[in-house]
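input
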Amino acid sequence: MINNSAQKTKGKNAPIVGGNISNSRIGDEYNIFEAKSLPNKPREVKSILKLICLITDYSRDTNVNVNQEDKDLNKKINIRFKKFKASLSSQFVKLNAWHSDSYEQAISVADISETQADKNAEYLRKLSVKYLSERENNPLEALDGLTEYFTENLSTDIDAVDFESSAIRFYLYKQLIACNVFPNPEEL
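output
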């Protein structure tokens, strides 16, 4: 049953514009979508929803950095990742054509508090910086690693669905655009 009195999330790191938290949840307290909403959803929507739940679960003890990072996407793509710009752009365009509707459906069902959205963003920032560093600042390889990491972790879930790894990668691209994946260093 949906709690229509739930406050809508509109925070700076929130993955959604609106939506309500359900009293009927799947799994533990950190899963954030209504159980009844899943059966008729496409595999891509389920993949994104379960990914949001996984990140929320992993980030619950994350301390949020109060310092604002440089969220200049233009600097990130045109300066920092200039060498990879064409590949990043073409992959995003292709994934956007395939998954933008699924992403919108998923975020319309999921809802998290602004505080939890900030924790999720901080978790993604730290994890993505680690993957980027391990792959010598190659964002394509780091995205491959992050996608594989989340796909493997989602596949161990007891409620595992047949995951769409390209939907997971698209979610990570959306977070890259929001500067929650590969945040710009201060000295850029």
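quick obs: Residues 1-11, 14-36 have pLDDT under 50 and may be disordered.
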